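User: tokens in, sequence out, please.
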């Protein structure tokens, strides 16, 4: 099973951060990947910080993951809506399950489901990874 973990924060969309220029690695996703590896589950991570939506869509099509795991905070909601719609309308990605987690999902779980998330994980995600 191909599992791709990502976030949808693109530095090019954040004028304030471009002035500060202190981007950071996606800690939550890295924790999940490390935990998965310990349990013999292979994952791939795409850190989209220095990428853009067009490039990410290309990568999605090339990798064609069975599971796409997305970290979400409130800043990346709109991008999720766009990307999840793109996945649902794309024949090539029709089998990709979308699983979401991170600080924003607890407050907006139902809305994310309405916007094409298959599974919303609230909290640390340990049990779900074991099931996968
Ligand atoms: C440290 C931190 C930062 C650091 C990041 C450092 C780093 N290396 O990651 C800095 C200062 C850069 C930062 C920036 C911002 N932050 Co901040 N930050 C935090 C803080 C204090 C800790 C985050 C952390 O590292 N947690 C540890 C990791 C392991 O946990 P995690 O990321 O949540 O991931 C776990 C689970 O959520 C889950 N999970 C995560 N992703 C996924 C994905 C899937 C598929 C699954 C299944 C599970 C899952 O599993 C992970 C492992 O258990 C939190 C507050 C908090 N206590 O959580 C705020 C917090 C996350 N930040 C917040 C905000 C708003 C921001 C900014 C948007 C601020 C801004 N206006 O610019 C930016 C976002 C920039 C971006 N790139 O998106 C908010 C988010 C609110 C929301 N509802 O979305 C929080 C919750 C603070 C708050 N209460 O307001 N932040």
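Assistant: Sequence out:
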């Amino acid at each position: 099973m191909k599992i791709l973990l990502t976030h949808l924060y693109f530095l090019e969309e954040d004028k304030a951060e471009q002035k500060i220029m202190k981007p950071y690695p996606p800690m939550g996703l890295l924790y999940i990947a490390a935990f998965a590896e310990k349990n013999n589950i292979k994952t791939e991570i795409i850190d989209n910080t220095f990428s853009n939506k067009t490039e990410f869509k290309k990568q999605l099509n090339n990798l064609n993951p069975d599971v796409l795991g997305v970290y979400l905070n409130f800043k990346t909601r709109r991008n999720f809506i766009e990307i999840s719609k793109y996945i649902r309308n794309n024949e090539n990605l029709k089998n990709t399950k979308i699983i979401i987690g991170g600080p924003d999902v607890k407050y907006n779980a139902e809305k994310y489901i309405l916007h094409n998330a298959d599974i919303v994980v609230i909290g640390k995600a340990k049990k779900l990874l074991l099931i996968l």
